[in-house]
Amino acid sequence: MRIQQVAIAAIKKDNKFLLTKRVKMDPEDVDYAPFVWHLPGGGIEKNEDAEISLKREIKEELNIEIDSCILVPKTFIDTRRDWQGVFTLFLCKLKDYNQEIILNEESEEYGWFTIEEASKLKVLPHTIEMIKEADKIKK
After folding, report:
1. Torsion sign over Cα 119, 43, 93, 70
2. Of 10, 70, 100, 116, whose CB is crowded by the most CB atoms within 10 A?
3. Which residue has the higher pLDDT, 33 or 86?
4. How do the domains of the chain map onto residue ranges?
5. What is the pTM of this model?
6. GO molecular function: any one (predicted)?
7. pLDDT tens across 96-137, in order?
8. Strand partners of residue 80
9. Cis omega before residue 125 (within 30°)?
């Protein structure tokens, strides 16, 4: 089994969280296809700090910069096929709320959702649980 460390951003603005709608699915996620919503983030590379990885992934996926990342004190683990993800979650703010979000080829859409709105979407495992945990953090 392949184990992957993953950094995830819960980016919050006005009591809403930023989710992206995936079109390009990783092999371990194909059972959830097509078009599933999730919190942005990605794999932590060898010898890479989780927060540095997250900032890199957000820049690659959304063409924006995040700031003020606070580690959410809960680890999320999910097993899919022959892959296990160990997720490190951060509550983050945008460095500049006037930044234009430009999605890369992985996603076709993004949106800002309350917990209640996100709960009605087709999401990857643990997405709602992660949002709820991030929402407990007071900045």
Report:
1. positive
2. 10
3. 86
4. 2-135
5. 0.91
6. bis(5'-nucleosyl)-tetraphosphatase (asymmetrical) activity
7. 999 999 999 989 999 999 999 999 999 999 999 999 999 999
8. 83
9. no
